Amino acid sequence: MLSKKDTQYAVDQMGEMFPEAECELVHENPFELLVAVMLSAQCTDALVNRVTPALFAKYKTPEDYVAVDLEELQTDIRSIGLYRNKAKNIKKMAQSLIDDHGGEVPAAREALEALAGVGRKTANVVTSVAFDIPAIAVDTHVERVSKRLGICRWKDSVKQVEETLEKKIYKQDWSDAHHRMIFFGRYHCKAQNPQCQQCPLAFMCREGKKRLKGVEEHG
Ligand code: SF4
Question: Which of 48, 131, 156, 186 is 20 to 30 A from 101 (CA-CA)?
């Protein structure tokens, strides 16, 4: 398993590779970000960004989402995967913002997580990106990269991955580390075709060592 020092080194290297790493979901305020993150579950940010300009022009407040018929909202987001459920959840979330938070998006992770339709990952992204509160949201990229590198165990749950990353990365770096790991996973340590031969972390990566050994043996 990678030590705290090695983990910090890996995250720093990812920062060298992707200094521009940041949230790729286009938004102008915490409410738009919350909707965009909810739409992005099991869907690419690029696809969400194609839908949100028209969506955000039409729906500006939680009241707008509550007022619209479910079918109409579903039609507005139908090019996005799981759109039926996502529309339902967005309407529920909007209603809970009105009921419990005066129509404003709360900053605290616990309060976000308590909103209908909002899970831990979404809450972490919003709290970190919109409110600058350190948090590590574990998505598919963060989980894969953490496990391949050996920061976490293969069998760890998403919650355990998050807890381990919080222990092994300095708190002031949590939010940056989250974005760097996403970019690193999205563009370099890809699910299907990780670029181990050009990876500056291969020397410390358990998965990379295995893959490169395979290349040597077969090459
Ligand atoms: Fe990913 Fe390969 Fe780099 Fe390991 S060596 S981090 S598996 S690209």
Answer: 48
